[in-house]
Every structure is written in structure tokens, then in C-alpha cells.
């Protein structure tokens, strides 16, 4: 059994559905122990090539979908690149193949490209003691008789919750399920699932996702002396931090004007209108998964050239 490290920022599989294996210069895809979350315009790929010494090597990761649409072919022994004889270069799309929170078996679709014929075992997040599952950044490949689990224990002394995650024997998981020995809401919980990457959201823990706005700031037409308020709110489940940035129309000022007051943890900014506040106001919501931004423009209600 080997331990694998996830290099990508952890996120909800439902949001980051393009999860791919990422390695360079390994003798077999089964030796690939890293994963990466690709961008929305990328797909997974695997390249098999013959190195300078005649040995087969594998490379995998993310590639632009526009490139994949052109090169998704088997080279059949042709195609030399940088002293490498490329035997095969193929892409796949985990999202198109159905990679979701409930169907994680479709994630990491480039594990078996280019006829590597690898028998990858189930990969589970593995940590002995964390405050929250999203703090776990390690994967372990389980033996065939084991599946993923998450265990929650609430400490009696202060009510603090601790989590352990990893591989568990199927028969042990069956005992917990059949006898209902634990509950999501109770002080003790053990839950199992039988798919790679599936144990991030067990025991009542929702997946952390990229912040989504429930209210965005609106463009405003203003006059000198007006008091305006811009609102920026996100789903509280995203546990995001909100910040504001300003860019004047002249491009000379990027500092938040002194006549603006940021309130309620960034969800509101109250502005007393002067010429200094005319420009673009950007609200940015950020958490450990990613960043979302919304822009509002404050401009003068007077016709151009007046005043």
C-alpha cells in the first residue's frame, strides 16, 4: 500500500469535476501518485513515450481542450519530440464522463489511457487527526477488501470535533451500517463509501465549494453628496472572506477612498459620493477552494461635460 499526495487545492468534487492524475517521467501510470484539479477549459491527458535509453515512460496532467480536440489520437510509434518517441497521446474529460460528488469513479479518467492497463485501487483521503475533513491533503490507495471511511468523534471536555479518514475493511463498515452504531449528528459517527475520493463529505460534513454570490453590487448613477451602499453577500456555507478593491476611471487611484466605509464583514460598503469615488468597485469572495468576484460601476448621473 502506498501513500499519495494531492497537490491540488481540495475542493468539492461537484465543483471541481476535472480531477486528473499528474506525473512526469514515471515508468507506469500505476506509479503516478499525484492529482491536480484542471481548469474549466482543460481536459486530462496521458502521454506514453520512449525515452533516450529505450524505456517506456508516462506523462499525465492537464491540457487545453482545444489542443485535445486535435491530438486525441494514437501515434502508433510515430512523432518525435525533443528526443522522445511519442507512442500515444490521448485526452479524456472527467466531467463529460460523469465525475460528480456521487459518481467519483469517473474522476481521474486518465489513469488508464494509452493502454496502460493499470488496476488502480480505490483511493481515499487519509488523515489520522484533523479538525475538519477539508484539512486532509493526503490520499491512500486501499487494498481490494477495503473502502473509504470517515470517523468523527466529539470530545466530551469541550465539544470539539476531530476527524480521522482512510481505508477500512468492508465487513467493519457493514457492521456500522447494519446496526446504526453512529449518526451524522451525534457525538460519534463512522461512515463509509466505495469510490475514490468519496470520503471528504461524510458524517454530515458538506463539501466546501467555490463562493457563490447571493447578492451582487449594482451599478449606480450618482450626484455629489449622495450616500450610496453597495451590497455583496455570499452563501455562508462557503465560509468565504469578502474584500473590496477600487479602480478610478482615470486610472490614477486604486486605494479605497476615505469617504467609503466597509461594514458588516465586507458585505456592505457605504460611500459618500465625491468625484474620488467614481470608478469600478470590485467585491471579491475567497475561501480555500477558490475566488469569485463581482464588479459594480459608480458613475455620474450628470451628462458628460456638465458641472
Descriptive account of the structure:
This protein has 307 residues and is mainly beta. The protein has 3 domains: 18-96 and 107-116; 122-193, CD59 (Ribbon); 213-300, Sandwich (Immunoglobulin-like), CATH 2.60.40.10. 6% of the residues lie in helices and 41% in strands. The protein has 2 helices and 23 strands. The longest helix is centred in the middle third of the chain and has 10 residues, at 170-179. Mean pLDDT is 78; it is low at 1-16 and 74-82.
Task: List strands and helices in order, with pairings.
Elements: E1 3-6, E2 19-21, E3 23-26, E4 34-37, E5 42-50, E6 56-64, H1 65-71, E7 80-81, E8 84-92, E9 123-125, E10 127-130, E11 138-141, E12 146-154, E13 161-169, H2 170-179, E14 188-193, E15 213-215, E16 220-222, E17 227-231, E18 233-234, E19 241-248, E20 260-263, E21 268-272, E22 279-286, E23 291-300
Parallel strand pairs: 1-4, 16-23
Antiparallel strand pairs: 1-11, 2-4, 3-6, 5-6, 5-8, 7-8, 9-11, 10-13, 12-13, 12-14, 15-18, 17-21, 19-22, 20-21, 22-23
Signal peptide: 1-16
Keywords: Signal
Protein name: Hemicentin-2
